[in-house]
């Protein structure tokens, strides 16, 4: 290949890259923009508010006990993992106690370590 052909190829590539960048930065319809006026279409502000979860152990005066596996099973996944606080809604104090009691129940074979 000659130097002229290489230079032409580079110029064509640069022009194509500039066109791609221009197409990405400009949208044809202003309605396609999100509510804030920028970003991808169809996306909101990104904030989702959930109802505050309340600790069952605090409100119902329950005690986490390794001898009640049916209660402890509510706080584990189908595969046997302990669910986090943000999903169950338990307070930090009771989440620590709950994790300890689940581990005790597993050790005594009242709860499985892993579900199949």
Describe the structure.
The protein is an all-alpha fold and 116 residues long. The chain folds into 2 domains: 1-47, no CATH class; 56-107, Irregular (30s Ribosomal Protein S18). The chain contains 5 helices and no strands. The chain has helices at residues 3-25, 56-59, 69-72, 85-88, 92-107.
Structure summarized in a few sentences:
With 116 residues, this protein is mostly helical.
Protein topology:
Blueprint: H1 3-25, H2 56-59, H3 69-72, H4 85-88, H5 92-107
CATH architecture field of the largest domain: Irregular
Number of helices: 5
| Series of H and E elements | HHHHH
CATH topology of the largest domain: 30s Ribosomal Protein S18
Shape: elongated
Strand content: under 5%
CATH superfamily of the largest domain, called what? Answer: Ribosomal protein S18
List keywords for this structure.
single chain, 116 residues, mainly alpha, elongated
């Amino acid at each position: 290949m000659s130097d002229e052909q290489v230079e032409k190829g580079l110029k064509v590539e640069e022009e194509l890259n500039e066109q791609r960048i221009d197409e990405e930065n400009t949208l044809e319809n202003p309605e396609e923009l999100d509510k804030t006026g920028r970003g991808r279409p169809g996306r909101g502000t990104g904030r989702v508010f959930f109802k505050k979860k309340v600790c069952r152990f605090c409100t119902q005066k329950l005690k986490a006990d390794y001898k009640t596996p049916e209660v402890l099973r509510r706080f584990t996944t189908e595969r046997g993992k302990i669910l986090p606080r943000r999903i169950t809604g338990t307070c930090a104090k009771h989440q620590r106690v709950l994790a300890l009691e689940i581990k005790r129940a597993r050790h005594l074979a009242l709860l499985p370590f892993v579900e199949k």
